[in-house]
Design a protein that fits this description.
CATH architecture: Orthogonal Bundle
CATH class: Mainly Alpha
CATH topology: N-utilizing Substance Protein B Homolog, Chain A
Strand content: under 5%
Shape: globular
Number of strands: 2
Structural class: mainly alpha
Number of helices: 7
Helix content: over 70%
Order of helices and strands: HHEEHHHHH
Largest sheet: 2 strands, antiparallel
Number of domains: 1
CATH superfamily: NusB-like
Amino acid sequence: MNAPRQSRSVARLAAVQALYQMEVTRAGVEDVIREFRDHRFGADIEGEALAEADEPFFADLARGVVGDQKAIDTAVTRRLAAGWRLDRLDATVRAILRCATFELLDRPDVPHEVVINEYLEISKSFFAGTEVGFVNGILDAVARDDRTA
């Protein structure tokens, strides 16, 4: 994987983690962006340097999801089974769906296929069960909705 693409992949994973953190701790987006910039990016784990993140892209994702959350949640909820609410989903699944949906709807510079693939890989890093297929189904449907809008 080339460095710019890998740095965006790392930024996407960090954005999912940041959204999860914001939901669990009720921290604001700017506080979480600052924490990631000051304490997480450029760090290492057990002596192994972490891959570089595209920090501006990370901040754009985090701010974008927070700023457009109502429209994002509407787009996702439209594709849930009848009677399901977004708040019934696992918090990590919600964060993945929100980040991906933001990119699908608000980042025309990134092809839908790339967005879906990136977030499926992120899903696989958190889940080994049916969640990955669930995420794929929702994101495919949101992408179809966006193409026909």
